[in-house]
Design brief:
The protein is mainly alpha-helical. The chain contains 13 helices and no strands. The radius of gyration is 29 Å and the shape is flat. Keywords: Coiled coil, Membrane, Transmembrane, Transmembrane helix.
Length: about 400
């Protein structure tokens, strides 16, 4: 009979080795998911966000330099410069997507940290490329442009903006005559900011005429761009308010009917709905009544109330109604929710974009990063809503966009 006594110590040794291996694996996994690892990953994501902000600032400066150099649509600009600029724009767009994904990532902290470091490295490399492109553009302008020609082009852009936009005051007066200040205050603020920006542009242009330096032209170009943004905000606010006034009564009536139907479901099948659904729906009905009472003076607020009530109705009923009825509800809610999301994004863009040089103090770096990411998240959700072929998916994306900026 063979001697098998050696199997016992061998089995013990193998078992001990397996146990040690298991302990090491578990320890490594715990370390990769520990609070310290998560904090390190959060710091790495913050570094990536700061690198994105630096690239965004550098690219804004490059875009401004192209415009001040009258090179945006010029055919004599070297292809290499145009390609480098386009590459930088694509890299920034990818960077926004990467940083937003990192912020939403709840997976393994170590992997998140590694990915964030990779994103940071790519963004910093692209920022260096933008700086090089900016320097090459400066050298090209010195050879192919004259101060007099650049000044004339800058004045032409300023005059074209004023001619195309016209005086915003009649739009403000029309809003003021029909609506409460809550529906036109932002437009009035934007109109005032546009006037200030044009005055700043004129001052910079006069200085450029007396002292032909690139700095004066850059300031003038930046001021004209700010004026254009503010004037667009006035036009957008006027359009949104007038559309809201045209649709408010019909939307309120439809929402009232929908809430009544939802109340029937909530009272007849309470177990199929969220807790307290009937009571919350009655509160929503009261909100619609309050909005209807002031809809003629506050139509934008009325449309927002309708969109909010419909969103709460959907949450409260959950799956208590059929798929067909949920789809019909989504189709009814989509136009108003999209309008609210677009209006909120336009207002946030005008309010939260890079501050005017002559305006209020700029937010610190962390707040600017948060603002930029918030706006980008809303834009991406709106793009998803526009691209969706299913009403429910489009409505979910529109609501996410609105939530990001309201």
């Amino acid at each position: 009979m063979p001697d098998l006594g050696w199997l016992v110590p061998a089995a013990i040794a193998l078992g001990a080795a397996a146990l040690v291996t298991l302990i090491v694996v578990v320890a490594v996994r715990l370390q990769r998911r520990s609070p310290r690892a998560r904090a390190a990953a959060d710091r790495a994501v913050s570094d990536a966000a700061r690198a994105l902000l630096a690239l965004d600032d550098a690219l804004r400066d490059l875009d401004l330099a192209f415009e001040a150099a009258d090179a945006d649509e010029a055919t004599d600009v070297p292809i290499a410069l145009r390609r480098a600029r386009a590459t930088a724009h694509r890299a920034r767009d990818r960077g926004f997507g990467d940083v937003l994904a990192l912020e939403d990532d709840a997976g393994v902290a170590a992997r998140r940290r590694t990915q964030a470091a990779r994103v940071t490295q790519a963004l910093e490399f692209q920022r260096e490329s933008v700086a090089s492109t900016r320097s090459q553009l400066t050298d090209w302008v010195a050879v192919h442009r004259t101060p007099q020609g650049l000044l004339a082009a800058a004045r032409a852009r300023r005059d074209e903006l004023v001619a195309a936009s016209g005086d915003p005051e009649p739009l403000i007066a029309a809003l003021r005559a029909r609506f409460d200040d809550v529906d036109w205050a932002d437009a009035a603020t934007a109109a005032s900011a546009a006037t200030d920006a044009l005055a700043e542009a004129d001052t910079a242009l006069d200085r450029a005429a007396a002292e032909p330096t690139a700095d004066h032209l850059l300031r003038a170009t930046a001021a004209v761009n700010r004026a254009a943004r503010h004037l667009r905000a006035v036009e957008d606010d006027h359009r949104v308010a007038m559309q809201a006034a045209d649709n408010a009564d019909a939307e309120l009536a439809a929402a009232r009917s929908e809430v009544e139907q939802a109340l029937d479901v909530a009272t007849s099948r309470p177990a199929a709905c969220r807790p307290g659904a009937a009571e919350r729906l009655r509160v929503a009905a009261d909100a619609l009544d309050d909005a209807a009472a002031s809809a003629s003076r506050r139509p934008r607020e009325a449309i927002a109330v309708v969109a909010t009530v419909r969103e709460e109705r959907d949450q409260l009923l959950d799956e208590a109604v059929s798929v067909r009825r949920r789809l019909e509800a989504a189709r009814a809610a989509l136009p108003g929710t999209l309008a609210c999301a677009r209006a909120a994004l336009a207002a946030a863009d005008a309010r939260d974009a890079v501050p005017d040089e002559a305006g209020l103090a700029a937010p610190d770096g962390e707040n600017r990063i948060a603002l930029l990411l918030r706006l980008e998240r809303a834009r991406r959700h709106l793009a998803e809503a526009r691209a969706a072929t299913d009403a429910a998916a489009a409505l979910a994306a529109a609501r996410a966009a609105w939530a990001a900026v309201r």
